[in-house]
Design goal:
The complex is a heterodimer of chains A (about 150) and B (about 150). Chain A has a single domain, classed as Hotdog Thioesterase (Thiol Ester Dehydrase, Chain A, Roll), CATH 3.10.129. Chain A has helices spanning about 5-15, 25-30, 60-80, and strands at about 30-35, 40-45, 50-55, 60, 90-95, 105-115, 120-125, 135-140. Chain A is about 25% helix and about 30% strand. Chain A is of the alpha+beta class and about 150 residues long. Chain A is globular. Chain B has a six-stranded antiparallel sheet with strand order 1-2-6-7-8-5. A two-stranded antiparallel ribbon of chain B has the order 3-4. Chain B has a single domain (about 5-150), classed as Hotdog Thioesterase (Thiol Ester Dehydrase, Chain A, Roll). Chain B has helices at about 5-15, 20-25, 55-75; strands at about 25-30, 35-40, 45-50, 55, 80-90, 100-110, 115-120, 130-140. The N and C termini of chain B lie close together (about 5 Å). Classes of the chains: A alpha+beta (about 150), B alpha+beta (about 150). At the A-B interface, helix 2, strand 3, strand 4, helix 3 and strand 5 of A face helix 2, strand 3, strand 4, helix 3 and strand 5 of B.
Chain lengths: ~150, ~150
């Protein structure tokens, strides 16, 4: 069993989803972590200066918004679905709706369609006003173990 | 402008002056009108799965966004601010642990309001991609153009 799935079992036992991020070096580096203090699973990217993509506005780099939406989808799949493998991302489409200001970004995700092998997930990110999303994404993940499956996690 | 000067100029504009690109250590390795290329070194903190050492999707997303944006900048007639409208990434295969990743982006069409780009990420052979991307950019957005107009400076 992967370290991440072991971490998932520990996190479930403790009721603290935040522990999931500790097993992912990129999430730690980016200060992206899931939280469920309000009863709803959210993913937060803590603002730090290295997230800036436009120093004039200033605004957060679009790539980091795509990255945190992807992480939000993964945390959602791990926490809210009965996944036995770490989901593997196949593709993601990110729509940029507003420039993101230098403050925390919060995202939630939901499964649009759960198939046997493939899951379609929608994720949405906002800052201080949830009704004004800064970016949304749709992503596909393979959730059945497959040695030949694509990338990342 | 000589090729090396052009690369140095774009390195300054698209990596050194953009904090997140700088944090990733993005290195500009190629630029000409309608084309941009960057390299991302492998680092432990970019890893998604520590057991395999495979990169997370995030660093590739940020790199491809930056590289597509740089390809747009090479097509501008005059400097103007622009912003990513959407970005699609297909993760074709896992990145090899420990290897640097190269991104190559092309801006194949630019109109008054929108620029269209496509890109691939690979380990040195573009025919064996790790990821493929398509991005569109909105031109004339808020802010200040800190980017060069390549079409003027052939």
């Amino acid at each position: 069993m992967s370290a991440l799935l072991e971490r998932l079992a520990e996190a479930r036992k403790a009721g603290d989803v935040g522990r999931l991020a500790e097993a992912i070096p990129y999430a730690r580096w980016m200060q992206i972590a899931p939280e469920n203090g309000t009863g709803e699973l959210l993913t937060r990217m803590r603002f730090h200066d290295e997230l800036i993509g436009n120093t004039f506005l200033p605004a957060i780099h679009g790539g980091t918004l795509g990255a945190m939406l992807e992480m939000a989808a993964i945390f959602h799949l791990l926490w809210e679905t009965e996944t036995e493998t770490v989901p593997k991302i196949v593709n993601i489409t990110v729509d940029y709706l507003r420039s993101a200001r230098p403050m925390d970004v919060i995202a939630c995700a939901k499964v649009t369609k759960q198939g046997r092998r493939m899951v379609n997930v929608f994720a949405e990110a906002w800052q201080d006003d949830r009704s004004k999303p800064v970016a949304t994404a749709n992503a596909h993940f393979l959730v059945k173990s497959d040695a030949d499956a694509p990338p990342s996690l | 402008m000589a090729k090396d000067d052009r690369i140095a100029l774009f390195q300054q504009w698209f990596s050194d002056a953009i904090p997140h690109n700088k944090a990733l250590g993005l290195k500009v390795i190629g630029v000409r009108q309608g084309f941009a290329s960057m390299e991302l070194g492998w680092r432990e903190e970019f890893v998604g799965n520590p057991e395999t050492g495979v990169l997370a999707g995030g660093p590739l997303t940020a790199m491809l966004d930056g590289c597509c944006g740089m390809a747009v900048a090479t097509m501008l007639k005059k400097p103007e601010p622009f912003a990513t409208l959407d970005l699609r990434i297909d993760y074709v295969r896992p990145a090899d642990p420990g290897k640097p990743v190269i991104a190559e982006a092309e801006c194949y069409r630019i109109t008054r309001s929108v620029a269209f780009t496509r890109a691939v990420a690979h380990h040195g052979d573009a025919k064996d991609p790790i990821a493929a991307a398509a991005g569109t950019f909105m031109l004339g957005t808020k802010g200040k153009a800190t980017r060069p107009a390549m079409a003027d400076k052939k």
